[in-house]
Design brief:
The protein is of the alpha/beta class. It contains five helices and seven strands. It has a five-stranded parallel β-sheet with strand order 1-6-5-2-4, sandwiched between helices. It has a two-stranded antiparallel sheet with strand order 3-7. The longest helix has 28 residues. The chain starts with a helix and ends in an 8-residue tail after the last strand.
Length: about 190
């Protein structure tokens, strides 16, 4: 009887260690929050947190949207017009569908922003917040997109105190069968 009890106890300890080892491994594989901004490989797994910001799941983002409780800001990059197109070629931007009522500030989630784009982002946030740095701003892009993480972190650095980061972005929104709309970006300084 003692032997069976000892074997059972040993099996339980080993099983517990295996579970703990799996949890530690999972934590090691989850991206960590860098001190600065992500500057490459923007479509990759993102951290589960962003210091100073509230991280939203789709149901929370939907509740804010339905209550009109915050301004939604899409930072999805805009595909550039190809260089050296033959004369007379008609160029049509790829359509962008996002959360209805959002402001699209493309290309503002890169790790480094040129001064004109930094100013563009700051002016866009000021418009979205109506000049109130405590207004709720929900920043998103696509799932596994560091652009939204960078943009939310940058908004915090600008002094905005009520930042919500929605890491699943339009992928999570559409996956929940929520409405989207075609949008055009806010005019950029280089256009």
């Amino acid at each position: 009887m003692r032997r069976h009890l000892a074997v059972a106890l040993l099996a339980a300890v080993l099983a517990g260690q295996a579970v703990l080892a799996k949890q530690v491994l999972a934590q090691q594989q989850e991206p960590f929050e860098p001190e600065g901004y992500r500057t490459d490989n923007y479509r990759a797994p993102v951290p589960a947190t962003l210091a100073g910001a509230r991280v939203l799941v789709t149901t929370e983002a939907e509740a804010i949207w339905r209550a009109k409780g915050g301004a939604f800001i899409d930072v999805m990059p805009r595909p550039p017009k190809p260089k050296n197109l033959p004369a007379g070629t008609v160029w049509r931007d790829a359509p962008r569908r996002n959360i209805p009522g959002s402001i699209w500030l493309p290309d503002t989630g890169y790790g480094t922003l040129p001064p004109a784009m930094d100013d563009y982002f700051q002016r866009g946030l000021e418009r979205a917040s109506r000049g109130d740095k405590s207004a709720l701003l929900v920043i998103y892009c696509l799932a596994d997109c560091w652009m939204s993480w960078n943009a939310a972190k940058r908004a915090l650095a600008y002094g905005y105190s009520n930042i919500a980061w929605y890491p699943d972005g339009t992928d999570g929104w559409e996956g929940a069968k929520l409405p989207t709309e075609d949008v055009q970006p806010e005019p950029r300084p280089d256009q």
